[in-house]
Amino acid sequence: MHVRYEGDDDPEKCTARNLARFDLVELHRSDRATPYGVVLNPHAERALSPADADTDAGAGALVALDCSWESAGEARFSLPGEHRALPYLVAANPVNFGRPMRLTTVEALAAALAIFGRRDRAEGLLSKFSWGHTFLELNDEPLRRYADCADSGAVVAVQQEYLDRGEDG
Predict the structure, then answer these.
(1) How many domains are there within the chain?
(2) Which of 35, 143, 148, 156 has the fewest CB atoms nearer than 10 Å to its CB?
């Protein structure tokens, strides 16, 4: 797993730096090439699905961008690879707890791993954070449902059910 590290957020709260200290991800500065793979990008046109784990890109690297939410515009995601958006999930991190789609880097990587059917690896990443298990608890049902989908279209259909619930509730 790889993280394009921009270094523009609070280093004390940076989950990517913490993961790198445990040798769980490799950090890449913006001036260095980032490995080709599946790039987690909230601006992507296609949703991440289990099918992406079986592509050439999925067999390569899983890549996340670590930057401040204030600067996470589409231009920051000019990385090579197959860009995919994570479906609807709720943050468990202390800064954005309960807010949809405001995930930390570790939450994004763990979500992708869970959708790829690698929940044990997702748990391993999240175990480095006191609140990590809460992410999987809050998102248990959607992550399991997304992991059962055949492709991006099916993930989007499941996601729509959660979005519709939010509008009704």
Answers:
(1) 1
(2) 148
Assess contact for 84 and 39: CB atoms under 8 A: yes
Average confidence (pLDDT) over 95-105:
92
Report the 10 Å Cβ neighbour count for 21.
Answer: 11
Binding residues: 15, 65, 86, 105
Domain that holds residue 160: 2-168
pLDDT tens readout for residues 126-147: 999 999 999 999 999 999 999 9
The radius of gyration computed from the CA coordinates of the chain, to the nearest angstrom, equals 15
Answer yes or no: are the C-beta atoms of 136 and 110 closer than 8 Å.
yes
Q: How many CB atoms lie within 10 A of CB 54?
A: 11
| Secondary structure (3-state) at 93 | coil
The token pair at 140 is 């248990």
| Residue set of the binding site for S-adenosyl-L-methionine | 15, 65, 86, 105
What is the number of alpha carbons within 13 Å of residue 38 lying toward its C-beta?
27
Coil, strand or helix: which one is 2?
A: strand
